[in-house]
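FIELD: query
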Amino acid sequence: MNRPELKSTQFTLLVIDANTGIVLNTDFQFFLNDGKDVYFVFDDWQLMKDFINRINQRYNTYEYAIYNSEYTLIEYR
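FIELD: result
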């Protein structure tokens, strides 16, 4: 998993399958170390929350790890 370079105002989001604990890639498939991206990058906190809400309307078995630009975990839900 290569972490993207971020601007100081950006956030990253990892999506995790709550049933297995496996990180999902950006296609919402299990990450298999196959080079596919796992980080969603957002320029705005509210856009990221809206994205999570849209996912939750369709899937309720995901958890989310939110990181700041220094890759410090700031929220897990």
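FIELD: remark
The first strand starts at residue 11 and ends at 17.
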